[in-house]
Specification:
The chain contains 13 helices and two strands. It has about 325 residues and is mostly helical. It has one domain. It has a two-stranded antiparallel sheet. The longest helix has 28 residues. It starts with a strand and ends in a 17-residue tail after the last helix.
């Protein structure tokens, strides 16, 4: 039930069950995810094909014999759920922007639609890089994903800043906006202050903030590399991925975006539900994912705990799990 993948692997036929793209996936994780979708009255298989199988460069995971556990396969499956939510978020915010739906300002709709579009491309690229063992560019993209997650959160917190972002009409204006409002940890401070008001302490002296700084410094080394960085990792015999840290960090950050967005904007799910209903009632609607943006919020948050126990001893970036 497979066909050849031009990138070197195999691809299940278009209408094959999603689990065929994740050989070795934990049956418990698959059952839990499908249970969460069914509880929302949603067809997981169909929407997975719409939001994940259709990704540019999509490829199934290779089957690894004698794998010690399902950790790496489970990670990709959770990561793909994040891609699906971000694509749904983009469809929903694009509809909200087009139809001027209440709940967010036009600038907030505009900014979230733009950032979710960029996140979709970055996550798609990171997936392909991770599955082909290209860790340095994967680290670069993971860092950009983290920055865009922070940016999306701050647009929800500060509508006036969202308007300044929407007003940028040139590269020079965008660079100035970034330098004045984003660079140097300014966004993280804004988010930390807002989260503190709802009982989450992410101030600079917390373990979370120190861990985050360490990870971003490591990822930054891939962006600002030098001639001494000549080591090229090779695939380990018994691993699906050599460089799963970038994939894990990106999954962690999208989980944060989903959860924190609902804390800084408590009505966000209702607002996205309204956008989805509007999209469904629009004759020219072409993106079925718009209706998923609201329901997928709770589904994705319910998957956060699975990232904390991937089946291996946490190391490196995977220490993120203790902060959920």
């Amino acid at each position: 039930m497979h066909k050849t993948d031009p990138t070197g692997g195999t691809l299940p036929f278009e209408y094959a069950p999603p689990e065929l793209s994740y050989p070795g996936l934990s049956p418990q994780l698959l059952a839990r995810v499908k249970q969460l979708w069914a509880a929302q009255g949603l067809d997981f298989d169909r929407h997975w094909r719409d939001g994940v199988r259709s990704l540019p460069g999509f490829r199934a995971l290779p089957r690894v014999e004698n794998a010690p556990n399902s950790a790496e396969v489970d990670l990709v499956f959770l990561f793909d759920q994040c891609i699906l939510w971000v694509r749904a978020l983009h469809a929903g915010t694009s509809c909200g922007r087009t139809h001027h739906i209440e709940g967010l300002t036009p600038a907030q709709w505009h900014g979230l639609a733009a950032l979710s579009a960029r996140l979709t491309e970055q996550l798609s690229a990171l997936r392909l890089l991770a599955l082909t063992d290209l860790p340095m560019p994967a680290m670069q993209i993971a860092r950009s994903i983290s920055e865009d997650v922070d940016m999306a959160l701050v647009l929800l917190i500060r509508p006036k800043l969202a308007q300044r972002f929407a007003d940028c009409q040139s590269v020079e204006e965008a660079n100035e906006f970034w330098r004045r409002h984003i660079a140097g940890g300014r966004v993280f401070r804004t988010i930390s202050e807002k989260l503190y008001t709802v009982g989450i302490d992410h101030s600079a002296d917390t373990d979370y903030a120190k861990w985050r700084k360490t990870v971003l410094t490591t990822l930054g080394a891939a962006v600002h590399s030098n001639a001494l960085n000549t080591h090229v990792p090779t695939r380990q015999q018994d691993n699906v991925l050599v460089n799963d840290d970038s994939l894990h960090f990106a999954t962690f950050r999208i989980h944060e975006l989903c959860a924190f967005a609902q804390l800084v904007e408590p009505d966000l799910t209702k607002i996205l539900d309204l956008a989805g209903a509007t999209a469904a009632n629009t004759p020219s609607a072409t993106d079925p994912l718009a209706q998923l943006a609201g329901p997928l919020n709770s589904i994705l948050v319910s998957q956060i705990q699975r990232l904390t126990a991937p089946g291996t001893t946490p190391t490196g970036v995977r220490q993120a799990s203790k902060f959920h």
